[in-house]
Queue: 2 jobs
Job 1
Amino acid sequence: MLGSLFSPDSVAVIGASRTPGKLGHAVLKNIVDCGFKGPVYPVNPAAREILGLRCYPDLDSIGERIDLAVIMIPAARVPEAVSDCARRGVKAVVVISAGFRETGHDGLVAEKEMARIASENNMALLGPNCLGLINTRTPLNASFAGAMPLKGNISLMSQSGALCTAILDMSFERKLGFSSFVSLGNKAQLNEVDFLDYWSNDPDTKVVLAYLEGISDGGKFMKAARTFTRKKPLIAIKAGVTNAGSKAVSSHTGSLAGSERAYEAAFKQAGVIRAESVADLFDMASSLVNQPLPGNDQIAVVTNAGGPGIMATDAIERAGLRLANLSQETMKRLAAELPGAASVINPVDVLGDALAERYRLALDALIDDRNVGAIIVILTPQIMTQVEETARVVASRSEKQAKTILACFMGKPHVEAGIRILNDNRVPNYAIPERAVISLKAMVCQKKRQERPKRRITRITIPRKPIKEVFDGARERGQLEIGETGAQKVLEACGIPTPASRLCRTPDEAVKFAEDIGYPVVLKIASPDILHKTDIGGVKTGVTGSQEVRDSFDLLVLRTLRYMPDVEIWGCLVQKQVEGGTETILGMNRDPQFGPLIMFGLGGIYVEALKDVAFRIAPLSRRDARQMIEEIRSSRLLYGVRGRPRSDIDALEDAILRISQLVTDFPEIVELDINRLVVFPEGQGVTGLDMRMVITGQ
Amino acid sequence: MLGSLFSPDSVAVIGASRTPGKLGHAVLKNIVDCGFKGPVYPVNPAAREILGLRCYPDLDSIGERIDLAVIMIPAARVPEAVSDCARRGVKAVVVISAGFRETGHDGLVAEKEMARIASENNMALLGPNCLGLINTRTPLNASFAGAMPLKGNISLMSQSGALCTAILDMSFERKLGFSSFVSLGNKAQLNEVDFLDYWSNDPDTKVVLAYLEGISDGGKFMKAARTFTRKKPLIAIKAGVTNAGSKAVSSHTGSLAGSERAYEAAFKQAGVIRAESVADLFDMASSLVNQPLPGNDQIAVVTNAGGPGIMATDAIERAGLRLANLSQETMKRLAAELPGAASVINPVDVLGDALAERYRLALDALIDDRNVGAIIVILTPQIMTQVEETARVVASRSEKQAKTILACFMGKPHVEAGIRILNDNRVPNYAIPERAVISLKAMVCQKKRQERPKRRITRITIPRKPIKEVFDGARERGQLEIGETGAQKVLEACGIPTPASRLCRTPDEAVKFAEDIGYPVVLKIASPDILHKTDIGGVKTGVTGSQEVRDSFDLLVLRTLRYMPDVEIWGCLVQKQVEGGTETILGMNRDPQFGPLIMFGLGGIYVEALKDVAFRIAPLSRRDARQMIEEIRSSRLLYGVRGRPRSDIDALEDAILRISQLVTDFPEIVELDINRLVVFPEGQGVTGLDMRMVITGQ
C-alpha cells in the first residue's frame, strides 16, 4: 500500500492552483520541479493549464490510471474527494488540507469517515492536516516544504509539520541526506506503525528519525519498533514529557506511573533510542548513517590539545561509556612513534604542534587495537596544524569502515575546509567532543540492541478458576476493590506465597490456629465492609500467646463495632507474622496507551519519599524482570551490602513474572499493589503481604 | 599590576623572529597588525629589522621605558630574561615559551624561580606555556592566536591554550565579541584569582568565561568568585571531573568526598555558573551579555509551531524553571487580538500562517504581563512566514531591554537573514529551544545570586581547652584517631548533646550509673587500644536490668580478653540508649584545594547504598547549612512524610554549623564522622553518637 505513496506511477493534484504563494501551487510546483518522472494531473475546474500542464476539471475527466492523489481543497469537500479517489481506484492519497480533528467534534467525524472510506477501499491515506511527503529516490516531493532534501539514507516522520520544515532547513547545513520525509499530520489512517513496517524493509532507509507527540496504538507500536530496531536504529523525540497530567489515583503504582513513565518503559523495551532535541536527532543520525557500529563501548581519543581531551573523557564517563584501556602493544607502538612529551595513554595527546603524520600514526595504532571500540579524533586549529591534510588522513582511515571514527575539528573559519573533506568522506564532525560522545552512546545502545538475544516472553500458567471466583464474589457484593482475603487467594493462585492465615470466627478458633502455625501472629479484623483496616485500628501485630490472641480478638471486634456499629464482621484473620527480609513493592497500573505498566521498587520510604522505582510494560521477559530489579538506585540493598545478606533475587524475579502474567491474563485488573512483597535471603523465597487490587465491573 | 598587562604603553618582544611560521614572528605580527598604538621593540641579537621595525640585540639597548615584555625564547634562557626585565623596570611579562612544570622537576624549579623574581620586583607574570593574551580595547594581541576576536564585553581565561584557539575560531560564527582573552598557561604567578579581581572592576567586562582544570588556591578563589559573581556572571567549565582518583580513606565522608564534590560545592557557594561544554559557554554568554536578567523564573513562549512549543515546555520543566502563568488580562487580550484557533495559554501559538504582525501582538501582550520573567520567540520557516519582518519586530521589542527576550528561529537557509537582524540587535538566537532554555537557566541563577543577601558566617564560640586536652591526650598515647570517649568530650564542648554516659570500672559502678540514668542502657568495652568495638563484639545494647548489666559487663571484659589478652581495659562505658529519631550522618574531610568539606546525609543505607549526601565548604552560613539539609533527595523524611513527625530541623542546622566551626577552629582535624547524629522530632533536639575523628600529629 505504501509503495504507491512513496513511488507512484502517476500523481493527481486535487486543488492545484495557478496562484504562486498558494499551497495548491506550491505542492504542484514541488512535484514538477523535483523531477518526478510519471504523468502529473492538476485538478481544478477553474483552470485550463497550470505550470504548463493540462488541468482537469475533475478526477473522472483524467481518464488514465492514477496512483497517488494529493488533496488540498477546503475541509468540507475533502471526504467527497477521498470517495472519488476510492471509486477511481486511486491507491494512495495525501490529505494536506487542515480543518479536521484539530477543530473539534465535527472535524473528527469527517476525519474518521474518510479514514473508513480509505480503509474499505484498500487505499493508503496520509494526513489530514500535514505538510505532505517526500521521497528522494523516486523522486517525489508531494509537499509544500520549501526545498527538496539532500539524497541519503535517513527517513523521517514527524507529527509536527512545522518541525519538518525546520529540520529540512537545518539538514542542509549538516549535509544530512534523506531517503524519505513524512509529515504524519492527524494520523487518520496511516500512523507511525505503518511507516516503521515499511522502512524496515526499505533498502534505502538505514536510520529512522521520529518526532512524536502521541502514539496511536501502544501495543502495535512496540511490536513494530521491536522488529525494526533489531535491524536498524530508530531515534525518537517524544515531546510533551512533562505534562503528565496524572489522574487522581489511589494506589502507589498509580500515583507514580503516568504517561511519561510508560513511554520511557516502552522505548526502553522496544530498543528505541530517545533523543531530547532536534540537535540530538541530527548528531545521532550523522554517525549512525555514516559509520559502522562500534565493536564495544570502549572509546579512544586522539587529540592535539589537552583540554578538549579531558572534556571528551568527562563526557565519556558521564555517558556511561568507557575510556578504552589501550593494549600494552599499542602503548609501546605509540611511545616509539610519537615524541617523548606525547601522552600514549588514552586520551592520546599528539601535542599542539602535531602535523597530519602524527595523527596517522596514532590512528593506525588505535585502529589495530582490539580493545578500542570507537575513536574520536579531536583537532584544534593551532598555527602549525595541517587541517586539511589531517582531515584527509582521518577520511582515508575511515574508508575501510573497520572501526567507528568520529571527528571533532573545533573551530569555524580555520577548520571549515577540513570539515568539508570529512563530510565528503562520511566522517561526521561534531563542534564539541560532548556531542560526539552523545552519538557514540546512541551507537553503542544500537549495537547492544542488535546483539540482544530475541526476547522470550516467559509464559506461566495461572489457574483461572480460583481468581475468577474472587472477582465474581467481589462484584456480587458490588465491590470493585478486592480486600485482603480475596487478594491473598489471588496471590496464592498466581504461585506467590503468602503467610499462613485463616479466617477465624471465634477466639477459640483463633487460638487453635495460632498454636498450629506458631507465634508470633498478626490478627486483623475480617469484614467485607472494611478495606483499610489499619485506619480504624483493626490490626494487632506481634501477638505471642493464647491469652493475647483472645484479648486481641475481642479488642478488634469491639473497637470496630464502636466505630462502625452496622458492619458485618466475619471474625478475625489470624496470620503468621513475617519477620526479617527486605520489603519491596510490586504493582501494576493500566496505561491508556501501552496497557499494563508494572512497577517495582523497595518498599516504605524508598517508594514514598525517594520514588526509586522501575517500570516495564507487561508481558515481561525474564530479562525485563531482572533489569527492573537492577535498575533501581537502591538495588544494592537486595544484592547484599555491609553485612546484609543477598536477597533471593530469583524468587523476586519469578514473582514479578507471575504478576506480569496475572495482569496479562486478566485485563479486568485495573490496578494492583503488593505493598509489601517481602524478599528473604537467598534460597528462602518471597512472601506477598497487603495486596490491593481494583477490577472493572465486568 | 594587570593594567600594564592589558594596556601597556610599550611592548618588547623577546625572541622576535624574521621567519614566518615561527611563534616569534606570529606574535610580533599580531601585535603590529592589531593596531597597537604604542612603540613595539623586537628583541633578537641576530636581526636588524623585522616587519619594518628596528630590532634590538637585547633589552638594555632599547633605552626607552618598557611596560610589557613578551618572551618566546628557549626555556633554559627564560629565567634570565625575566631577570633582565625586572632589572629594566618592566611592569609585566607574558612568557609564551613552554618547557617548565609540564616537563618535570627541573622545569618546575625554573618556573618557581621566575615567579619569585617577578613577585619580588612587583612585576606581573602570565604563563609560562601559554598562548598569550588579547585585549580588544587597547587594542593588543600579544598572542599567537590566528586572529583577533570581535570587540565585545566578554572576557575569557583558559587553562588550555588550544581551547582558546578553538573558542576564538568558533566565536566568529556566533558573532560573540570579547573584551579580553587570556591563556593562563602554567599559572606560575598570575592565576584565575588575579584576573577575576581585575575584571570585577573592568567596565568593559560584563561576563567572564573560564575553562579551568585546577584551581591554584581554593580559598582565595572562593573569596574572589563570591565578590565577582555578586556583580557579574562567571561561567566556568571545570574539566577533569571524573578522574577523582580518591585516595584510600577510612571515613564515610572521606570515601564520598573527592575533588569533584569539592568543586561542585565551591562553585555553588561562590555563585559560579557551571558549564558542561564550550557550547554551554557560548549559549549562556550570548544571553548574559546581550539581554537584561529575567525578572523571575517564569518563562513565556510564543511560537508559530506546536511541536517546538512543546519541546520548549519540556525543556523549561526539566531545567527547573516554570512555564509562566499568563494573567487573565493577557489571555483576554491575546484572545481578542489573535485568530480563534491560536492558543492564548502559554506556550502562545500564533499558528503556522502567522505574519510578523501576530508576533508583535503576542510579544507586546507578554511584555506587559508582570507574571512573565522572560520570553522565548520560536519561529519555523513556513511558506508564508515573514522571517525578516518578524526578526525586526523582535528586535524592536528587545530594544527597550524591558524584558529578557531570546529567539529560536529554527532552520538555516530560510531563516539566516532573520538571524542576522536579531544578532545585529543583540537578540541572541538559538538553533533549538532547549539551548535557549539552558541560557535562561543560567540567567535566572545569576539573578538569584545577585539578589541573595550578603552571606553572614555564623560564628559560634567553641571552648578550646577541653578539646585541646583530648587531642593532646591522644597524641601522648601516640594515637591520631580519637576514640569514643574523647570524641564525646569534643562533641559536648561543641555544644552538640551526647547521651548520658560514664566510664565505669566495675560492675557495681555500672549498675549504679545505669539505675541513675534509667534503662535501657548500652555497655561498650572501654580500652584505649580498641577503636572498633563492634568488630570484636565489644558492645551490648538494650540492657534493661541490673543483673543484665552485671552479666554484660563481665561478658564484654571476658570476650575482649579472649581475643586480645594484652590490651589495657579501663572498664565499660555505660550509656543511655537512644531510642527513636532519625539517623543522619555529619562529617568532614579536608580537601587539598578547598579545605574542610562538610558532608551531610541520612544515615545507614542512605549514605552507604544511595550516596544521598550534600557537600559544602566550611565555614558555613546558616543558609548553607539549611540548603544542605534540603538538598538531599531523602530530605522529605526529615520534614515529615506519611505519619512520620517533622524532625528538629533547627537543631540539626545548628549542629551542622557547630561542626563547621569546630573544623574551622581546629585545622588539625583531618577527618571526622558523626555516624549517627540522631535527630528527634521538632523541639527535641539532636544527639551525637559514634563520632570518629582523625587529627594531625601536631
Job 2
Amino acid sequence: MDEDFWAVLPAGGAGTRLWPLSRRSSPKFLHDLTGSGQSLLRATWERLEPLVGPRFLVVTGASHADAVRRQLPMLPDDAVVAEPSPRDSMPAIGLAAALLERRDPGAVLGSFAADHVVTRPDALRKAVREAVALARRGDLVTIGIAPTRPATGFGYIRLGDRLGVPGAPSGCRVDAFVEKPDAQTAARYLADGRFRWNAGMFVARAATLLELLGQSRPDMVATLRAIAADPRHLDALWPTLERIAIDHAVAEPAAAAGRVAVVPAELGWDDVGDFASLGPLLPAQAQVGGIRVATGAEHLLALDSTGVVSAGSGRLVAVLGVDDVVVVDTPDALLVTTRSRAQDVKQVVDALACRGRSDLL
Amino acid sequence: MDEDFWAVLPAGGAGTRLWPLSRRSSPKFLHDLTGSGQSLLRATWERLEPLVGPRFLVVTGASHADAVRRQLPMLPDDAVVAEPSPRDSMPAIGLAAALLERRDPGAVLGSFAADHVVTRPDALRKAVREAVALARRGDLVTIGIAPTRPATGFGYIRLGDRLGVPGAPSGCRVDAFVEKPDAQTAARYLADGRFRWNAGMFVARAATLLELLGQSRPDMVATLRAIAADPRHLDALWPTLERIAIDHAVAEPAAAAGRVAVVPAELGWDDVGDFASLGPLLPAQAQVGGIRVATGAEHLLALDSTGVVSAGSGRLVAVLGVDDVVVVDTPDALLVTTRSRAQDVKQVVDALACRGRSDLL
C-alpha cells in the first residue's frame, strides 16, 4: 500500500479480567489466548503487515518494551516507543502522530489495539484501504464493526449518510459515538441496523489528528510535538499529559462537528475482554466435550461440562458435571468461575492486591 | 475395658470418589480429609484406644501395610495384617476373627472401618461398651446411627424390640438390614423413626462370628482358621476365598435368624464417601466466605461462592461466583465439579484409567 501509511499499535492495558493468564508483568497482548500459535500482538502485526510493510509504531509501557521487541524482532528499534507511565490512549496515539508528522508531513496513520482478535483479516485490510482513502480528505475515520449480539461491553457508532467517496464505497458519515448501552438499549441498537460497534480503530492523517486534538487541547499538542522533536524530553514532559482516551479527546467532538467517517465491516472482531468472550473465539477443533479449550487440551478431561478451560500448568484438569464453567490453571494460580461472572474477575485481582499478593498480579 | 476386647480395623477401599486426594497408591484412610490434623486411620485408632489399649488388628492391602505401620507406630508389628489382594470385608474381618480366636477363645472383636469420621467419640465408646455386653451373650451386634437426613448412600437397619440386657440399656433386636433406598423410601425411613444407618460396625465374639459364617460358608471358616494357624499359608489360600461383604455373608442371614442386636447411637458419623459429604464434616472455622475448606485455607480466595475446596498444591485458588462447587487442587491433578455430581467422581477415575493415566490413579 502507499508508502505514507503507518500502523500504530497501542499496546497497553493489563487485561485484568483475564487474570491469571494476563498479569501486570505480562499483559494480555503478549499472550496467545486463542491457541492460534501467536500472541495477540504478533497476530495484530501479521494482519497489518501486508498493508504497511515495516511501517509500524508500537506504543507500550516501558516495562514491556523489551518483550514487545522480542515478539516483533523484524521491526526496527525505533518502531517501539516506550511510555514512561500509562496516560490512556490519547497521549499514546498523539505521540505516535507527532513522531510520524515529523518523518512525513503527509503521513496517514491507522491505530489498532494490540490485544484484540480479528478472525477475518482480509476484511479488515479491505476496510482499512477504504478508511485511508477517506482519511486523505481530512476526516478522522473509524471502522464500524457489524454487531453480532446485543453487547453491553462496547461503545457504538451511529451511521449517518453514505459519503460516496471514490475508493471508499462503504464509507458513511458518523452521526455520533454512543456510550456502552444497557441490555435493552443494546437490543434496540442491534435491531435498528444503523449501529456499529466502536472497536477503537482510527485512521487519519497525523496532521488531522493533531489538528482535531488541538481544538480542545492545544497544550497537549504542543507537548507531544516537543517530545517528538527531542525524545530526551519524554521523561520530563510525559507525566504532564492529561490521562484521556482518544474517544473523548477527539472522536466524540469531531463527530459532533461532522468530521468523522466510518467504514462498516464484518471482521470477526472481539476485544477479548474476559474469559466469556474468549470461548466463541476458540477454534471448534479446540473442544473437549462441551468445553472450549484455550490451552492444554491434552491435559483436560471433561465430562458432562460446558464452558472455557485453559489448562496451562501441565497438571491434569478434570471437570465433571459443571455448566458454563471457567477454569484457568496456571503454575502459581488457579481461577474457577462461570461465564456469567467472567466480567468480575477484576474483583479477584483487587482482593489479591488488598492481601499484598503482588507476586500474583 | 475388658482385656478380651479387640478393635479390628479393615483399612481397605480406594476412596475412588475422593480422587484426586485419595489415590490407589495412597487411599482415603491414610489422609487427613477434614483438617483434623490426623489421618482417618489415626483418628480411628485414637477414638478406640481408650477401649482396647494396644489390642488392635489392622487388616490392609499388602501395598499399604508399611504406610499403616508408619501412621500407627505404637502398635506391635503383628497388629498389622497384610492382605495379598482385596477380597472384600468378610475375608478380612473373618481372618481377624480366626487370629483372635487362637489368641483367646473368648475374645470379643469390634470391627470399625478405618476411613470413617465420628465427631462424637465419647458416644461411640459408650455404644461400643453396650455392644460388647450384648455380644457376650452370643449375638452379632451392630451400632445403628440415628439418621440426620434422608441419605440414599447408606444401608439401613430396622429396629425391633428392646432387649433389656444389663449393661446394654439401649440394645434392641434387629428386624432386618435393608438395602440403600431411593430418595422417597429414604424420606419414609427418616420419618418412621425405627430406622438407623448401617455404618458397618460389628461387635461379636470371634467364635460367634465364625459360627455364623460357618452356617453358609463352612469352607471359608476352615480356610481362615488354616491361615490363622500357619500364616505361611496366607499367600496360597487367600486367593481361594470368596469376595463377599460381611453384610451379605453374615449380618443379613443372622438378622433373619434373630441373632443380631443393635445399639442405636448418635455419633456424628459419616463414611466420607465423596466430597459432598466432606463439607458438613469440616469445622466451621475452616470456612472462607461460603466455602468449607478441607486443606489450604491460606491459599484460598473465595468471592460469592459456596461449596468445598481443598487447596493442597500451594498455589492460589480463586473461586468467584460459583455455587455448590467442589475444587480439589493437588500438585499433579485438579478436580472441578459440583456437590451434586460429587458421587460421580469415579467416572473421572475410570476415564483416566481408559487413557492409561495410571500415574494419576
